[in-house]
């Protein structure tokens, strides 16, 4: 089985999982419905992205039977779905400030991820073997990963539980960060990589470099 099939199943069934949790815990608060709207819709936004500009790295990865079992337990439980479990079993309403912060983080994360992946897909489709240093990648080397971080941070905020943040940091440190380092190692083969790295941040813009770049009138 290809890895993207398993990921897509998880994304598409998350809304059903959250709805089932709301019924099981009798948790029909405004906060629960907001969480359902955010985390549930994320799966279908992901599917739209997959249909328009799929992630080739995931779609080309093959999983054997053991890989399917291990990945399922890591992705479903005790993985991302645990955040939903912790969010819904808390029947107290979240504060308006926390809800607003979570919604802002979710929207910014989704937009960043979608635009970044779209840009990367279409640039590489017609210009293979190039280092992307424009658009979303002008000041941030990995805007798609940053978008994912913002998106899942919104779910953790609404869960209001420290275990959610443990899962969040574990996944980022042991899965996403190594993937980013591997990608950077691959990109380092381009002659312009060294200069580009000095003028950009991994997840956030490197402000001093932006300032110096504008002063010099230099473009990548």
What would you say about this model in short?
The chain has 220 residues and is mostly helical.
Textual characterization of the structure:
75% of the residues lie in helices and 0% in strands. The chain has 9 helices and no strands. Helix 2 runs antiparallel to helix 6 and helix 6 packs antiparallel against helix 7. The chain has 220 residues and is mainly alpha-helical. The chain has one domain: Four Helix Bundle (Hemerythrin (Met), subunit A) (Up-down Bundle), CATH 1.20.120. It is globular and about 60 Å long.
Distance between the termini: 41 Å
Strand content of the residues, in percent? under 5%
Second rung of CATH, namely the architecture = Up-down Bundle
The poorly predicted ranges are 214-220
Tally of discrete structural domains? 1
Task: Spell out the helices and strands N to C.
Answer: HHHHHHHHH
Task: Give the CATH level 1 class.
Answer: Mainly Alpha
**Global structural class:** mainly alpha
Helical fraction = over 70%
Q: CATH fold name, please?
A: Four Helix Bundle (Hemerythrin (Met), subunit A)
Sheet with most strands: none
Average pLDDT figure: 87
3D shape:
globular
Radius of gyration equals 19 Å
């Amino acid at each position: 089985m290809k890895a993207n099939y398993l990921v897509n199943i998880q994304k598409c069934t998350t809304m059903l999982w959250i709805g089932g949790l709301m019924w099981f815990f009798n948790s029909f608060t405004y906060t629960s419905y907001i969480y359902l709207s955010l985390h549930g819709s994320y799966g279908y936004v992901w599917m739209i992205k997959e249909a328009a500009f799929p992630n080739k790295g995931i779609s080309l990865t093959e999983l054997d039977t053991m890989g399917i079992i291990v990945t399922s337990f890591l992705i479903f439980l005790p993985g991302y779905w645990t955040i939903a479990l912790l969010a819904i079993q808390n029947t107290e309403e979240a504060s308006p400030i926390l809800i607003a912060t979570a919604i802002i983080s979710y929207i910014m994360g989704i937009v960043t991820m979608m635009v970044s992946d779209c840009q990367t897909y279409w640039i590489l489709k017609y210009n293979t073997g190039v280092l992307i240093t424009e658009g979303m990648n002008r000041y941030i080397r990995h805007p798609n990963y940053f978008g994912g971080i913002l998106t899942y941070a919104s779910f953790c905020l609404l869960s209001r539980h420290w275990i959610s943040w443990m899962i969040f940091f574990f996944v980022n440190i042991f899965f996403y960060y190594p993937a980013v380092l591997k990608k950077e190692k691959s990109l380092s083969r381009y002659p312009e990589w060294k200069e580009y790295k000095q003028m950009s941040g991994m997840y956030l813009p490197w402000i001093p470099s932006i300032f110096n770049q504008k002063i010099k009138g230099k473009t990548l």
